[in-house]
Amino acid sequence: MTSRSASNRPGQLNKKLAVPSALWGAILDFRSGHKYVWDEQAQTARVALAHETSGFLPTVTQAELAEWRTDFVGSHRRGLKQDELRSLLAWQSGGITRNLPLALQNPWKAELVSRVVTRIEDHFAKHGAPSPVKHKRIAAGASDLQDPTTREPPAHKRPSERLEAADVAPSPEAMDDELTAERLSLGDHLGFGEALVRKLQYVDEARLDSMIGKIAAAWASPARLVSDIASVQELVARAHEFVPEDLGVALVHALSRLRDAGREMQNGVRDLVFRLSDPIATVFEVAQQTTPTALAGAAIARLDQHRSLLQNAVTAFQVTNTVTAKGASIDLLRNGRNLTRMVLPGERPYVRELEVLLGAAFRKFCEACERHDDAGVLRRAAEIREHLSRSVPTSSDPRAHSAFWKLSVQPVYRHVEVLLDEGAQRSEVAASPNLTLATTQLKLNLSGGDHQTAFACRLLNNGDGRALQIAASVIGAEPTKHTNLKSSSLWGPSMSPPIPSNWLLLVSP
Which position has the higher pLDDT, 132 or 487? Predict the structure, then answer.
Protein backbone atom coordinates (compact mmCIF):
# COMPACT_ATOMS: atom_id res chain seq x y z
CA MET A 1 0.00 0.00 0.00
CA THR A 2 1.57 3.29 -1.08
CA SER A 3 0.50 6.89 -1.15
CA ARG A 4 1.65 9.27 -3.87
CA SER A 5 0.61 12.78 -4.64
CA ALA A 6 -1.35 13.22 -7.85
CA SER A 7 1.28 15.67 -9.04
CA ASN A 8 4.19 13.34 -8.35
CA ARG A 9 4.81 12.29 -11.95
CA PRO A 10 8.08 12.11 -13.88
CA GLY A 11 9.09 15.34 -15.53
CA GLN A 12 7.16 17.53 -13.10
CA LEU A 13 8.18 19.69 -10.16
CA ASN A 14 6.69 19.29 -6.71
CA LYS A 15 6.29 21.80 -3.91
CA LYS A 16 8.26 21.26 -0.71
CA LEU A 17 6.84 22.73 2.51
CA ALA A 18 9.11 23.78 5.37
CA VAL A 19 7.29 24.46 8.66
CA PRO A 20 9.37 25.95 11.50
CA SER A 21 9.61 23.32 14.22
CA ALA A 22 8.49 25.69 16.99
CA LEU A 23 5.41 26.64 14.96
CA TRP A 24 4.64 22.99 14.25
CA GLY A 25 4.79 22.22 17.97
CA ALA A 26 2.60 25.20 18.86
CA ILE A 27 -0.15 24.04 16.51
CA LEU A 28 -0.21 20.49 17.89
CA ASP A 29 0.45 21.18 21.61
CA PHE A 30 -3.10 20.88 22.92
CA ARG A 31 -2.11 18.99 26.07
CA SER A 32 -0.13 21.71 27.87
CA GLY A 33 -2.92 24.29 27.84
CA HIS A 34 -0.46 26.99 26.75
CA LYS A 35 -1.43 29.74 24.34
CA TYR A 36 1.11 30.54 21.65
CA VAL A 37 1.83 33.63 19.56
CA TRP A 38 4.08 34.28 16.59
CA ASP A 39 7.09 36.46 17.41
CA GLU A 40 7.56 38.43 14.22
CA GLN A 41 10.95 39.79 15.22
CA ALA A 42 12.41 36.42 16.21
CA GLN A 43 10.46 34.58 13.49
CA THR A 44 9.42 31.82 15.86
CA ALA A 45 6.44 30.63 17.87
CA ARG A 46 6.54 31.07 21.64
CA VAL A 47 4.26 30.88 24.68
CA ALA A 48 2.15 34.03 25.04
CA LEU A 49 3.10 36.48 27.79
CA ALA A 50 0.63 37.62 30.43
CA HIS A 51 -0.15 40.94 28.70
CA GLU A 52 -0.73 39.31 25.28
CA THR A 53 -4.46 38.65 24.99
CA SER A 54 -5.01 38.29 21.25
CA GLY A 55 -3.39 36.93 18.10
CA PHE A 56 -3.01 33.44 19.52
CA LEU A 57 -1.89 30.72 17.14
CA PRO A 58 -4.67 28.22 16.30
CA THR A 59 -3.56 25.26 18.41
CA VAL A 60 -5.58 22.21 17.45
CA THR A 61 -8.00 20.84 20.06
CA GLN A 62 -8.09 17.22 21.16
CA ALA A 63 -11.55 16.83 19.60
CA GLU A 64 -10.35 18.19 16.25
CA LEU A 65 -7.34 15.87 16.19
CA ALA A 66 -9.61 12.93 17.02
CA GLU A 67 -11.87 13.93 14.14
CA TRP A 68 -8.87 14.07 11.78
CA ARG A 69 -7.90 10.55 12.80
CA THR A 70 -11.49 9.35 12.38
CA ASP A 71 -11.66 10.77 8.84
CA PHE A 72 -8.33 9.13 8.01
CA VAL A 73 -9.47 5.75 9.35
CA GLY A 74 -12.72 5.99 7.38
CA SER A 75 -10.87 6.49 4.10
CA HIS A 76 -8.12 3.87 4.67
CA ARG A 77 -9.73 0.93 6.50
CA ARG A 78 -10.94 -0.91 3.41
CA GLY A 79 -8.80 -3.84 2.31
CA LEU A 80 -6.80 -4.12 5.52
CA LYS A 81 -6.09 -7.43 7.21
CA GLN A 82 -7.66 -8.07 10.60
CA ASP A 83 -4.45 -7.34 12.54
CA GLU A 84 -3.84 -4.18 10.50
CA LEU A 85 -7.38 -3.00 11.14
CA ARG A 86 -6.97 -3.65 14.86
CA SER A 87 -3.75 -1.62 14.87
CA LEU A 88 -5.39 1.19 12.91
CA LEU A 89 -8.27 1.44 15.39
CA ALA A 90 -5.87 1.33 18.33
CA TRP A 91 -4.04 4.26 16.77
CA GLN A 92 -7.35 6.08 16.25
CA SER A 93 -8.10 5.79 19.97
CA GLY A 94 -4.66 6.61 21.36
CA GLY A 95 -2.92 8.50 18.55
CA ILE A 96 0.37 6.61 19.10
CA THR A 97 2.12 6.54 15.72
CA ARG A 98 3.85 3.20 16.31
CA ASN A 99 0.38 1.58 16.48
CA LEU A 100 -0.36 2.79 12.95
CA PRO A 101 0.28 0.13 10.27
CA LEU A 102 3.61 0.85 8.56
CA ALA A 103 2.01 1.22 5.14
CA LEU A 104 -0.26 4.02 6.44
CA GLN A 105 2.33 6.05 8.36
CA ASN A 106 3.47 8.12 5.38
CA PRO A 107 -0.10 8.84 4.17
CA TRP A 108 -1.00 9.99 7.70
CA LYS A 109 2.07 12.26 7.85
CA ALA A 110 1.04 13.80 4.54
CA GLU A 111 -2.53 14.25 5.81
CA LEU A 112 -1.31 15.85 9.03
CA VAL A 113 1.06 18.21 7.22
CA SER A 114 -1.75 19.27 4.88
CA ARG A 115 -4.11 20.11 7.73
CA VAL A 116 -1.49 21.87 9.86
CA VAL A 117 -0.18 23.98 6.98
CA THR A 118 -3.70 24.98 5.95
CA ARG A 119 -4.43 25.95 9.54
CA ILE A 120 -1.26 28.08 9.72
CA GLU A 121 -1.87 29.82 6.42
CA ASP A 122 -5.49 30.59 7.30
CA HIS A 123 -4.34 32.18 10.56
CA PHE A 124 -1.72 34.42 8.98
CA ALA A 125 -4.00 35.36 6.08
CA LYS A 126 -6.64 36.50 8.57
CA HIS A 127 -4.08 38.78 10.23
CA GLY A 128 -2.74 40.07 6.91
CA ALA A 129 0.74 38.65 7.47
CA PRO A 130 2.89 36.42 5.25
CA SER A 131 2.90 32.76 6.16
CA PRO A 132 6.10 31.38 7.75
CA VAL A 133 5.57 28.20 5.74
CA LYS A 134 8.17 28.18 2.98
CA HIS A 135 7.19 26.97 -0.48
CA LYS A 136 10.09 25.66 -2.54
CA ARG A 137 10.19 23.97 -5.93
CA ILE A 138 12.04 20.65 -5.93
CA ALA A 139 12.63 18.06 -8.62
CA ALA A 140 10.10 15.28 -8.91
CA GLY A 141 11.23 11.83 -7.97
CA ALA A 142 12.76 12.89 -4.68
CA SER A 143 12.37 10.44 -1.86
CA ASP A 144 8.80 10.09 -0.66
CA LEU A 145 10.04 9.26 2.84
CA GLN A 146 10.74 12.78 4.06
CA ASP A 147 10.36 14.45 7.41
CA PRO A 148 6.67 15.20 8.12
CA THR A 149 7.45 18.90 8.39
CA THR A 150 8.68 18.98 4.80
CA ARG A 151 6.47 16.45 3.08
CA GLU A 152 4.13 17.51 0.37
CA PRO A 153 0.47 17.08 1.29
CA PRO A 154 -1.90 15.24 -1.04
CA ALA A 155 -2.70 17.19 -4.20
CA HIS A 156 -6.40 17.39 -3.40
CA LYS A 157 -5.63 19.07 -0.05
CA ARG A 158 -2.59 21.20 -0.97
CA PRO A 159 -2.54 24.53 0.90
CA SER A 160 -3.54 27.52 -1.21
CA GLU A 161 -0.82 29.58 -2.88
CA ARG A 162 -1.19 32.56 -0.57
CA LEU A 163 2.41 33.66 -1.05
CA GLU A 164 1.58 34.35 -4.68
CA ALA A 165 -2.15 35.14 -4.44
CA ALA A 166 -2.98 36.31 -0.94
CA ASP A 167 -5.43 38.87 -2.26
CA VAL A 168 -7.84 36.24 -3.62
CA ALA A 169 -7.96 33.92 -0.58
CA PRO A 170 -11.01 34.52 1.67
CA SER A 171 -10.35 34.94 5.38
CA PRO A 172 -11.30 32.13 7.79
CA GLU A 173 -14.00 34.31 9.34
CA ALA A 174 -15.48 35.06 5.91
CA MET A 175 -15.66 31.34 5.18
CA ASP A 176 -17.17 30.66 8.62
CA ASP A 177 -19.72 33.45 8.06
CA GLU A 178 -20.70 31.84 4.75
CA LEU A 179 -21.16 28.45 6.44
CA THR A 180 -23.15 30.05 9.27
CA ALA A 181 -25.49 31.75 6.80
CA GLU A 182 -25.96 28.50 4.89
CA ARG A 183 -26.84 26.51 8.03
CA LEU A 184 -29.17 29.27 9.22
CA SER A 185 -31.04 29.32 5.90
CA LEU A 186 -31.62 25.57 6.23
CA GLY A 187 -32.81 25.85 9.85
CA ASP A 188 -30.04 23.45 10.89
CA HIS A 189 -29.68 23.81 14.69
CA LEU A 190 -26.58 21.64 14.95
CA GLY A 191 -24.81 22.99 11.87
CA PHE A 192 -25.47 26.62 12.83
CA GLY A 193 -24.00 26.03 16.28
CA GLU A 194 -21.00 24.12 14.91
CA ALA A 195 -20.27 26.94 12.44
CA LEU A 196 -20.26 29.42 15.34
CA VAL A 197 -18.00 27.12 17.40
CA ARG A 198 -15.32 27.48 14.71
CA LYS A 199 -15.10 31.18 15.60
CA LEU A 200 -14.32 30.59 19.27
CA GLN A 201 -10.62 30.25 18.49
CA TYR A 202 -10.19 33.73 17.06
CA VAL A 203 -13.00 36.11 18.08
CA ASP A 204 -11.96 38.81 20.55
CA GLU A 205 -13.21 38.93 24.13
CA ALA A 206 -15.87 41.52 23.31
CA ARG A 207 -17.59 39.13 20.88
CA LEU A 208 -17.08 35.96 22.90
CA ASP A 209 -20.19 36.57 25.03
CA SER A 210 -22.34 36.87 21.90
CA MET A 211 -20.89 33.66 20.44
CA ILE A 212 -21.68 31.61 23.56
CA GLY A 213 -25.22 32.97 23.71
CA LYS A 214 -25.90 32.19 20.06
CA ILE A 215 -24.39 28.67 20.26
CA ALA A 216 -26.35 27.71 23.39
CA ALA A 217 -29.59 29.13 21.96
CA ALA A 218 -29.12 27.29 18.65
CA TRP A 219 -28.42 23.93 20.26
CA ALA A 220 -31.26 24.29 22.77
CA SER A 221 -33.87 25.53 20.26
CA PRO A 222 -37.01 23.38 20.38
CA ALA A 223 -38.76 23.34 16.97
CA ARG A 224 -37.81 26.73 15.53
CA LEU A 225 -34.16 27.79 15.38
CA VAL A 226 -33.64 30.75 17.68
CA SER A 227 -30.85 32.75 16.00
CA ASP A 228 -31.51 36.33 17.12
CA ILE A 229 -29.86 36.07 20.55
CA ALA A 230 -27.33 38.90 20.78
CA SER A 231 -25.71 38.04 24.12
CA VAL A 232 -25.78 35.73 27.13
CA GLN A 233 -27.69 38.43 29.02
CA GLU A 234 -30.44 38.35 26.40
CA LEU A 235 -30.47 34.55 26.58
CA VAL A 236 -31.03 34.82 30.35
CA ALA A 237 -33.96 37.19 29.73
CA ARG A 238 -35.50 34.80 27.18
CA ALA A 239 -34.77 31.57 29.02
CA HIS A 240 -38.54 30.93 29.28
CA GLU A 241 -38.54 30.13 25.53
CA PHE A 242 -36.45 27.01 26.13
CA VAL A 243 -36.79 23.76 28.03
CA PRO A 244 -34.53 24.29 31.07
CA GLU A 245 -32.88 20.85 30.83
CA ASP A 246 -32.17 21.34 27.09
CA LEU A 247 -30.74 24.81 27.66
CA GLY A 248 -28.52 23.45 30.47
CA VAL A 249 -27.23 20.65 28.21
CA ALA A 250 -26.57 23.07 25.35
CA LEU A 251 -24.72 25.45 27.67
CA VAL A 252 -22.48 22.69 29.04
CA HIS A 253 -21.64 21.57 25.50
CA ALA A 254 -20.87 25.16 24.49
CA LEU A 255 -18.59 25.57 27.52
CA SER A 256 -16.87 22.28 26.68
CA ARG A 257 -16.06 23.62 23.23
CA LEU A 258 -14.96 26.92 24.77
CA ARG A 259 -12.50 24.98 26.93
CA ASP A 260 -11.22 23.11 23.88
CA ALA A 261 -10.55 26.48 22.22
CA GLY A 262 -8.46 27.55 25.23
CA ARG A 263 -10.80 30.37 26.25
CA GLU A 264 -12.08 31.33 29.71
CA MET A 265 -15.69 31.53 30.92
CA GLN A 266 -16.99 35.10 31.24
CA ASN A 267 -19.06 36.62 34.05
CA GLY A 268 -22.31 36.65 32.09
CA VAL A 269 -21.94 32.94 31.40
CA ARG A 270 -21.37 32.23 35.09
CA ASP A 271 -24.69 33.92 35.86
CA LEU A 272 -26.48 31.70 33.33
CA VAL A 273 -24.84 28.58 34.82
CA PHE A 274 -26.04 29.67 38.26
CA ARG A 275 -29.62 30.10 37.01
CA LEU A 276 -29.54 26.66 35.36
CA SER A 277 -27.73 24.93 38.23
CA ASP A 278 -30.62 22.60 39.12
CA PRO A 279 -31.25 21.16 35.62
CA ILE A 280 -27.50 20.93 34.97
CA ALA A 281 -26.89 19.02 38.22
CA THR A 282 -29.85 16.71 37.50
CA VAL A 283 -29.05 15.88 33.88
CA PHE A 284 -25.32 15.38 34.38
CA GLU A 285 -25.78 13.64 37.74
CA VAL A 286 -23.38 15.85 39.67
CA ALA A 287 -23.73 17.41 43.11
CA GLN A 288 -24.38 21.10 43.51
CA GLN A 289 -21.13 23.05 43.72
CA THR A 290 -20.16 26.18 45.61
CA THR A 291 -19.52 28.20 42.43
CA PRO A 292 -20.94 28.18 38.88
CA THR A 293 -17.44 27.59 37.51
CA ALA A 294 -17.07 24.45 39.63
CA LEU A 295 -20.51 23.19 38.61
CA ALA A 296 -19.76 23.72 34.91
CA GLY A 297 -16.43 21.93 35.34
CA ALA A 298 -18.07 18.96 37.05
CA ALA A 299 -20.72 18.71 34.33
CA ILE A 300 -18.10 18.87 31.55
CA ALA A 301 -16.06 16.17 33.31
CA ARG A 302 -19.11 13.89 33.51
CA LEU A 303 -19.87 14.55 29.84
CA ASP A 304 -16.28 13.70 28.90
CA GLN A 305 -16.49 10.50 30.96
CA HIS A 306 -19.60 9.20 29.19
CA ARG A 307 -18.30 10.28 25.79
CA SER A 308 -15.10 8.33 26.44
CA LEU A 309 -17.03 5.21 27.48
CA LEU A 310 -19.13 5.36 24.33
CA GLN A 311 -16.09 5.97 22.15
CA ASN A 312 -14.30 3.00 23.69
CA ALA A 313 -17.37 0.85 23.00
CA VAL A 314 -17.43 2.06 19.38
CA THR A 315 -13.74 1.20 19.00
CA ALA A 316 -14.30 -2.28 20.48
CA PHE A 317 -17.23 -2.85 18.12
CA GLN A 318 -15.13 -1.89 15.09
CA VAL A 319 -12.76 -4.87 15.57
CA THR A 320 -15.50 -7.51 15.86
CA ASN A 321 -16.56 -10.12 13.32
CA THR A 322 -19.97 -11.62 12.63
CA VAL A 323 -19.66 -14.03 15.56
CA THR A 324 -18.42 -11.56 18.20
CA ALA A 325 -20.35 -8.44 17.16
CA LYS A 326 -23.52 -9.18 19.12
CA GLY A 327 -21.98 -8.80 22.59
CA ALA A 328 -20.05 -5.67 21.60
CA SER A 329 -23.19 -4.11 20.12
CA ILE A 330 -25.10 -4.63 23.37
CA ASP A 331 -22.31 -2.90 25.32
CA LEU A 332 -22.29 -0.05 22.80
CA LEU A 333 -26.05 0.47 23.11
CA ARG A 334 -25.83 0.47 26.91
CA ASN A 335 -23.25 3.25 26.83
CA GLY A 336 -25.31 5.13 24.27
CA ARG A 337 -28.38 5.02 26.50
CA ASN A 338 -26.36 6.35 29.44
CA LEU A 339 -25.35 9.33 27.32
CA THR A 340 -28.79 10.04 25.84
CA ARG A 341 -29.82 12.81 28.25
CA MET A 342 -26.39 14.46 28.05
CA VAL A 343 -26.15 14.81 24.27
CA LEU A 344 -27.58 17.83 22.49
CA PRO A 345 -31.35 17.71 21.91
CA GLY A 346 -30.78 17.62 18.15
CA GLU A 347 -28.42 14.66 18.48
CA ARG A 348 -30.68 12.43 20.57
CA PRO A 349 -32.30 10.94 17.44
CA TYR A 350 -28.84 9.70 16.46
CA VAL A 351 -28.66 7.64 19.66
CA ARG A 352 -32.05 6.17 18.71
CA GLU A 353 -30.63 5.43 15.25
CA LEU A 354 -28.07 3.22 16.94
CA GLU A 355 -30.91 1.42 18.74
CA VAL A 356 -32.57 0.69 15.39
CA LEU A 357 -29.36 -0.23 13.56
CA LEU A 358 -28.11 -2.59 16.27
CA GLY A 359 -31.56 -3.75 17.31
CA ALA A 360 -33.42 -7.03 16.86
CA ALA A 361 -32.60 -7.50 13.17
CA PHE A 362 -28.86 -7.08 13.78
CA ARG A 363 -28.87 -9.45 16.75
CA LYS A 364 -30.75 -12.09 14.74
CA PHE A 365 -28.25 -11.59 11.91
CA CYS A 366 -25.39 -12.34 14.33
CA GLU A 367 -27.24 -15.35 15.75
CA ALA A 368 -27.85 -16.68 12.24
CA CYS A 369 -24.12 -16.34 11.53
CA GLU A 370 -23.34 -18.30 14.71
CA ARG A 371 -25.75 -21.10 13.68
CA HIS A 372 -24.54 -21.07 10.05
CA ASP A 373 -28.15 -20.39 9.04
CA ASP A 374 -27.42 -19.11 5.55
CA ALA A 375 -31.02 -18.29 4.67
CA GLY A 376 -31.42 -16.36 7.91
CA VAL A 377 -28.17 -14.46 7.32
CA LEU A 378 -29.22 -13.32 3.86
CA ARG A 379 -32.75 -12.41 4.97
CA ARG A 380 -31.58 -10.30 7.93
CA ALA A 381 -28.80 -8.72 5.86
CA ALA A 382 -31.37 -7.49 3.35
CA GLU A 383 -33.40 -5.86 6.12
CA ILE A 384 -30.36 -4.10 7.58
CA ARG A 385 -29.09 -2.95 4.19
CA GLU A 386 -32.36 -1.14 3.60
CA HIS A 387 -31.66 0.90 6.72
CA LEU A 388 -28.01 1.41 5.72
CA SER A 389 -29.06 2.91 2.39
CA ARG A 390 -30.34 5.95 4.30
CA SER A 391 -27.19 6.34 6.41
CA VAL A 392 -25.06 8.48 4.10
CA PRO A 393 -25.73 12.13 4.97
CA THR A 394 -25.87 14.71 2.18
CA SER A 395 -24.38 18.19 2.55
CA SER A 396 -27.81 19.52 3.58
CA ASP A 397 -28.33 16.77 6.17
CA PRO A 398 -27.78 18.00 9.77
CA ARG A 399 -25.83 14.81 10.47
CA ALA A 400 -23.06 16.02 8.16
CA HIS A 401 -22.33 18.83 10.63
CA SER A 402 -22.72 16.90 13.89
CA ALA A 403 -19.54 16.01 15.79
CA PHE A 404 -21.42 13.27 17.69
CA TRP A 405 -22.61 11.66 14.46
CA LYS A 406 -19.17 11.66 12.86
CA LEU A 407 -17.33 10.33 15.91
CA SER A 408 -19.81 7.88 17.46
CA VAL A 409 -22.48 6.89 14.93
CA GLN A 410 -21.01 6.94 11.44
CA PRO A 411 -18.16 4.51 12.34
CA VAL A 412 -20.79 2.04 13.57
CA TYR A 413 -22.68 2.26 10.27
CA ARG A 414 -19.46 1.63 8.35
CA HIS A 415 -18.55 -1.44 10.40
CA VAL A 416 -22.05 -2.90 10.15
CA GLU A 417 -21.68 -2.70 6.38
CA VAL A 418 -18.38 -4.59 6.66
CA LEU A 419 -20.07 -7.25 8.80
CA LEU A 420 -22.90 -7.67 6.29
CA ASP A 421 -20.40 -8.20 3.49
CA GLU A 422 -18.53 -10.73 5.62
CA GLY A 423 -21.71 -12.61 6.52
CA ALA A 424 -22.94 -12.69 2.91
CA GLN A 425 -19.58 -13.94 1.69
CA ARG A 426 -19.48 -16.73 4.26
CA SER A 427 -23.04 -17.72 3.41
CA GLU A 428 -22.22 -17.98 -0.28
CA VAL A 429 -19.29 -20.23 0.52
CA ALA A 430 -21.36 -22.31 2.91
CA ALA A 431 -24.18 -22.63 0.38
CA SER A 432 -21.87 -24.26 -2.16
CA PRO A 433 -21.67 -28.07 -2.38
CA ASN A 434 -18.30 -29.83 -2.50
CA LEU A 435 -18.70 -33.00 -4.59
CA THR A 436 -16.10 -35.73 -4.88
CA LEU A 437 -16.13 -39.25 -6.21
CA ALA A 438 -16.03 -41.92 -3.55
CA THR A 439 -13.78 -43.90 -5.90
CA THR A 440 -11.27 -41.92 -7.90
CA GLN A 441 -10.64 -44.61 -10.56
CA LEU A 442 -13.17 -46.24 -12.89
CA LYS A 443 -12.52 -48.99 -15.44
CA LEU A 444 -15.01 -49.02 -18.33
CA ASN A 445 -15.02 -50.69 -21.75
CA LEU A 446 -16.22 -47.97 -24.12
CA SER A 447 -15.00 -49.52 -27.35
CA GLY A 448 -18.19 -51.24 -28.33
CA GLY A 449 -19.78 -48.48 -30.39
CA ASP A 450 -23.27 -46.98 -29.97
CA HIS A 451 -24.72 -48.88 -27.08
CA GLN A 452 -25.37 -48.29 -23.38
CA THR A 453 -22.82 -49.21 -20.74
CA ALA A 454 -23.88 -49.49 -17.11
CA PHE A 455 -21.52 -48.78 -14.20
CA ALA A 456 -21.78 -47.82 -10.53
CA CYS A 457 -20.42 -44.52 -9.22
CA ARG A 458 -20.93 -43.01 -5.80
CA LEU A 459 -20.67 -39.26 -5.05
CA LEU A 460 -19.91 -37.59 -1.72
CA ASN A 461 -20.92 -34.02 -0.81
CA ASN A 462 -18.42 -32.62 1.69
CA GLY A 463 -20.04 -29.16 1.65
CA ASP A 464 -23.16 -27.79 3.31
CA GLY A 465 -24.90 -26.70 0.10
CA ARG A 466 -27.26 -28.75 -2.03
CA ALA A 467 -26.20 -30.05 -5.45
CA LEU A 468 -28.85 -28.94 -7.95
CA GLN A 469 -27.09 -29.72 -11.23
CA ILE A 470 -24.39 -32.33 -11.74
CA ALA A 471 -22.26 -32.88 -14.83
CA ALA A 472 -19.46 -35.45 -15.17
CA SER A 473 -16.84 -35.14 -17.87
CA VAL A 474 -13.74 -36.98 -19.02
CA ILE A 475 -10.94 -35.02 -20.66
CA GLY A 476 -9.89 -36.74 -23.86
CA ALA A 477 -9.75 -36.47 -27.61
CA GLU A 478 -12.68 -35.17 -29.67
CA PRO A 479 -14.75 -33.85 -26.74
CA THR A 480 -17.70 -33.16 -29.02
CA LYS A 481 -18.56 -36.84 -29.08
CA HIS A 482 -20.66 -37.68 -26.09
CA THR A 483 -23.18 -40.06 -24.68
CA ASN A 484 -26.03 -39.62 -22.18
CA LEU A 485 -25.89 -41.38 -18.85
CA LYS A 486 -29.23 -42.13 -17.22
CA SER A 487 -29.92 -43.46 -13.75
CA SER A 488 -32.74 -43.37 -11.23
CA SER A 489 -30.50 -43.30 -8.16
CA LEU A 490 -27.66 -40.80 -8.22
CA TRP A 491 -27.20 -39.65 -4.64
CA GLY A 492 -24.99 -40.80 -1.85
CA PRO A 493 -25.20 -40.67 1.94
CA SER A 494 -23.90 -37.09 2.09
CA MET A 495 -26.03 -35.79 -0.79
CA SER A 496 -29.29 -33.91 -0.50
CA PRO A 497 -31.90 -35.41 -2.86
CA PRO A 498 -33.30 -34.90 -5.38
CA ILE A 499 -30.31 -35.10 -7.74
CA PRO A 500 -30.99 -34.69 -11.47
CA SER A 501 -30.76 -37.95 -13.40
CA ASN A 502 -29.24 -36.56 -16.62
CA TRP A 503 -25.44 -36.57 -16.63
CA LEU A 504 -23.27 -35.67 -19.60
CA LEU A 505 -20.23 -37.93 -19.99
CA LEU A 506 -17.61 -36.88 -22.57
CA VAL A 507 -15.52 -39.83 -23.74
CA SER A 508 -13.13 -40.89 -26.48
CA PRO A 509 -14.52 -43.30 -29.07
Answer: 132
